Amino acid sequence: MVKFLFGIALISYGFFRTFVHDPVWGLYLFAALTHIRLAQLSENYYLPLQIPIVIASLTVLLYLSSAKYPKKFNRWPLEVWLLGFIVVGMAYSSSKAAFNPQLSWDMTFTYFKYWIFFLLLIQLVDSFEKIRNFHNVLILSACWLVYRCYDLRGTTGARFENINGGSIGDSNHFAAALVLLFPFVFQRVLSKNKTEALFAGVLCFGIIMSVVITGSRGGLLGLGVLFLLLFMNLKQYRKKMLMALVVLCLAVSPFINDYHISRFKSLVEATQEDTRERSAQSRLDFWRYSFELFKNNPVSGIGLANFGYYSGPALEGMARGQRGHVAHSTWFEILAEGGALVFIPFVALLIIFFRKTKRILKVYLANNLIQEAQHVIALRVGLGAFLVNATFLNRLIYEPIYWCIALGIAHSYLVKSRAAALSPVNCDHAETPNAHKVVSG
To answer: What is the mean pLDDT of residues 81-95?
Structure first.
């Protein structure tokens, strides 16, 4: 009953703010329901599962009719076109799929919806307040995932499974989602508001505990990369971070059992060929086979979601037409199934994101805009650690990858608009002293 009431309150508040305040609230609500699944909110009481479609359609209509946005769809950065190229590449790849073309086209349509959300997010998020609100949505998502892990603890087997979690139901996918969300929560640990910092600290503990409970080695590796990246990017907080890390490890350690130790110990053993376990070895075999499939189909790949139909007969002794395991790596998933038409624009998107946000970060730090800088660091660290985690599991279908990129674009427009108000210097030259002075205003 409590979950159902929470769902009603969340949906009602989102719809109300979308109608009365700003259509961007429709995006916030849609994003929240990516992790806070309606199927989980309505386990005992009915909620229409078509709500996200209604929200998306309503957001578009209200945006088109809103006087707050006199210039409609006026932002078309290169990233919009690259994501569009990914969708086109997926469509071409789906047309070549030898097995289950319907599934390939479903994934292509999912990415088309990603592109629409991506485009809307860039148009509607035009202030730092809206960026902060979107971060709040991600923090709320992290709260929900930790609650799910707590609520279902010990009921899903040795490894936690997020039942009815959609694209984040599997334990490895669940851990990967928490890895991406962690920096947005940790950023609030550094808040001057002690209540906010305390709440964020407790939630950080919950995230780490949840990753441990999943038994995901990729998740644990992702957490390690997270702390390393945070340590590198937040130099002024290193002492506080080390203290926080020690406290968190001590708090988590009593809950780690022999199963978790054996799972995480195999991270080291996986690098030693004579002690490599079956799971690690199979991943290497799938990666090699993925690359072979890519070499045979370099342009279009074999079709989205089709790898299992090849790996089953080739590596697992299955009959033709039976579906085996996935590639167990986002990079090899894209290479084998989408080919160069999908892989090249995907990598280009990531390169542009990290280069662009690096320039923006320099501007913020040069002008002592600490909060803004921390928001950019959260984007960079979250996506960077997630991509390390995604090296070991299929995560092509996970929309927050593109939310991070879109929020980076929103930061770049904010920097440019502020600079343009005083000088023709723009964000692309933000490393120069003059640009720093302009942006500081």
So the answer is: 96
